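Hi R.,

Here's the chain you asked about this morning:
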Amino acid sequence: MAKMMKTEHPIIFTGEMVRAILDLRKTVTRRVIKPQPSSPWDKPPQWIDTDGFYHSGEGSFLGTKSDCRCPYGKVGDRLWVREAMECVREIHVGKEFYGDEPYDCYYDAYYTADHVGWNDLDLDESPLHDEWFENYRNWYEAHDKGVTIPSIHMPRWASRITLEITNIRVQRVQDISEDDAVAEGILNEGGIHLSHCHYHIFHPDQQCSCGDKSLPKHFASLWDSINSKPKPVYRTIDGKRVITHYVSYPWEDIQETREYCHKPWYVYGNSWVWAIGFKMPEKESG
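And here is the predicted structure, written out as tokens:
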């Protein structure tokens, strides 16, 4: 009997988050719901059905189904992780000559998060593998240096991490609990940080210097480092792709319109998010 293929969806993670996932310290991710729910869909309770659709309401709206569906799938679906890679040139003594020394030159890609080489992993190649590396080899030679390949350009065959969705919740980002923060990768002692508290989760061997012991506040610093800056929204107008406005989703509970680069900047603070739980899937037998 043929096996049923799991539905898969791509998801981008930063290098720091990739390391937390590989260390089994991160088992949930929060992603902004776009567009943000409005009345009546912002009424509690919020829940997701087995098809990934968002339900919400109180009173007459209780149990009402919206047309808002989680773009990352439903429970049981799989997420293949897109992460940044670096194209590098490897030189080995052997075949041709480099000056007076024989050498063999080839190109490889390393995962930026931990510098593991793609060729070191037992991954299935795609027919497009050689063409993909050829493109980045040309890019490498044009720059005469190593080239970072943005995560958005990672093809499926190059992904080394596949996750299985275990649950999906809808909540305000500020509703995160201490346990939720730990599942995001925040640690009780040392954890995710950078310039502020979220340095903790990325550097578990180093102590926080801010003195704040609230894990949700540490997560707030991480959230703002990713979501508080204005991001452009594009539309195609008369055949041209133009920026119509900017949006941001800061931790602070503010809803207002600002101006950025002479365009409207819509701020959706304490935004509604998909809280997506996941695990490493069990290896299938046979």
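One quick note: The first helix runs from residue 15 to 22.

Cheers,
M.
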